[in-house]
Amino acid sequence: MKLFRTQQGIVIEQAGQHYSFNGGTWDALIARDDIQAFLQAQIDTGRMPKVAAPVNPKAPVVGQEIWAAGVTYMRSREARMEESKSSGGGDFYDKVYVAERPEIFYKSAGHRAVGTGTNVRIRKDSKWNVPEPELTLVMSASGKITGYTIGNDMSSRDIEGENPLYLPQAKCYDGACAVGPCILISKDPLPKDTTIKIVISRGGKEVFSGSTALSQMKRELPSLAAYLYRETTFKTGCLLMTGTGVVPGDGFTLASGDEIAITIEPIGTLVNTVE
Ligand code: DO4
Ligand code: MG
């Protein structure tokens, strides 16, 4: 089952059909532990009219905060140790990769996140920027993982590399967070062989592509979710990006006009253009 936010309202995709949901707000729906059963009951009892497939869905987030886990894949550890070598920050990434407590940071308010088919941005005071393709958890108010979406954790590598304390500036600014195109609602965990693919195109030509699989992640998803909810409440649920396993080589930086397409097969493709 997939959940879309559209201009016309909330649309549910189930077994090849699309239905319009008018039984409450987005935030009330995301807060629920039983989204799938609740929506299925609405379909089964004919309470949702059939509609056309959504076009140009909006970011699947309203009142939810978006948080992010970091250094959950070996590739992220390596790239960050390299970029922060001269600042002496490399050790921090090495240590957090193996530490019991994961790195978790605030990424974006829901209203600041952009959806598929829109623009992401690079900071004007940065010269080295990359997208980070990340499986993104959707969690209920109680902290239950109820669904999955795709996230792009845009990052300014030169700012983060200069000093790890600059992380919030490297990660949180207008156009730094893209999520979408929908939420895959599933009570079952995604298979470990689920792949996360990214293609970056410039002037219609591919300039970078890469992929990873969930099996490459050092941490377990329920453990990341539990850490986030340990001492923090999220009344309307929350989204959690789970870290990148793909980082382009050091010679690569994004440029204005680049198209970034991130695909996680059971969810779809999140496409954004760099402003
Ligand atoms: O430690 C800095 C950020 C890490 C991150 O965003 C990632 O690994 O995806
Ligand atoms: Mg990241």
Subunit organisation of the chains: single chain
Radius of gyration: 18 Å
Number of domains: 2
Structural class: alpha+beta
The biggest sheet amounts to: 9 strands, mixed
Name of the level-1 CATH class of the largest domain: Alpha Beta
Please tag this protein with its features.
single chain, 275 residues, alpha+beta, Fumarylacetoacetate hydrolase, domain 2, nine-stranded mixed beta sheet, five-stranded mixed beta sheet, globular, binds 2,5-dioxopentanoic acid, binds magnesium ion
What this model shows, in words?
- By secondary structure, the protein is of the alpha+beta class.
- It folds into 2 domains: 2-44, no CATH class; 65-274, Fumarylacetoacetase-like, C-terminal domain (Fumarylacetoacetate hydrolase, domain 2), CATH 3.90.850.10.
- The protein has 7 helices and 16 strands.
- The strands form 3 sheets. The protein has a 9-stranded mixed sheet, sandwiched between helices. The protein has a 5-stranded mixed sheet with strand order 6-16-15-12-13, with no helix packed on it.
- Bound molecules: 2,5-dioxopentanoic acid and magnesium ion (MG).
- Magnesium ion binds at residues 68, 70, 132, 134, 153, 241, 243-244.
Quick recap:
The protein is an alpha+beta fold.
Layout of SSEs?
Blueprint: E1 2-6, E2 9-14, E3 17-21, H1 26-31, H2 35-44, E4 65-70, H3 74-83, H4 90-98, E5 103-109, E6 118-120, E7 129-130, E8 133-139, E9 145-153, E10 155-156, H5 157-162, H6 167-171, E11 177-185, E12 195-202, E13 205-213, H7 221-229, E14 238-241, E15 259-264, E16 268-274
